[in-house]
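INTERNAL AUDIT FORM
Audit reference: QA-55
Scope: verify that the stored structure record matches its stored sequence.
Auditor: D.O.
Record contents follow.
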Amino acid sequence: MVLTAAISPDPDDLFMFRALIEGLVDARGLRFDVRTEDTDALNRMASGNGADINAISIAHYPRVAEHYRLFRHGASVGRGYGPIVVALADRVPASLTGLRVAVPGLTTTAYLVLRMAVGAFEPVVTPIIPYARTFDRLRAGDVDAALLIHEGRLTFPDEGCVGLLDVGVAWSEWTGGLPLPLGGNVIRRDLGDEVIARADAAIRDSIAHALIHRDAAMDWLEARGVSLRTRPLLDRYLGMYANADTLDMGDDGVVAVRRLLGMGAERGWLPAVDVDFVG
């Protein structure tokens, strides 16, 4: 049986699916047809005719919960860190109210948490591929600040920018130290419990394989031409977003998902939802 899987082209997503793509683990009688799209596009896919397995922003789950369940594995989790707001000159985060801020999409977790932190600002959707586009818009004066995820979150000092606010730090302070669940993988409900259980086990094994064979996985990522510029940057990025939390977000991760979506619903920004986890 072939399952379609839509993930981002970012190193953490490819890292976790590498063993399945390369046939290095038991796929439980399944074959995974993997394609890549940027974060906002993945969220839009899941809202329409999405893949069988779809990477999404956690903040988008309430809008697709009717058709999808959420895996405990495959999550990008920030523990005391997360997406970061940058600008070309230092300023207090509160001064962003009413200003133009480049965001990776209106359905992303990063955007949701920044709204909680700053309040009203003018979001300017700026696709993260290529990631340099965000810095180009800053230098051109098209936006006053930018909310960075993925590679830009690590490389912004090299682009002449200064960090104003790490929304993962803000989230941790609000919640008494809960991790910030940024993205995750969902699976279509209509596949049925038996196929879902097989897919759950196969993807979990693929993530475990990547963590055990981390150097080989990084070699594979570099051979594919991932966007991170150097091996140390790739190593740092994977350390942040492809780690033990990716194998299982943990009970505090489950609590954090429910807290995040509950806070969004309380503000009227998200539909209320009972999160349905696989496993």
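Auditor finding: record pair retrieved intact. The domain at 84-175 is CATH 3.40.190.10 (D-Maltodextrin-Binding Protein; domain 2).
Action required: none
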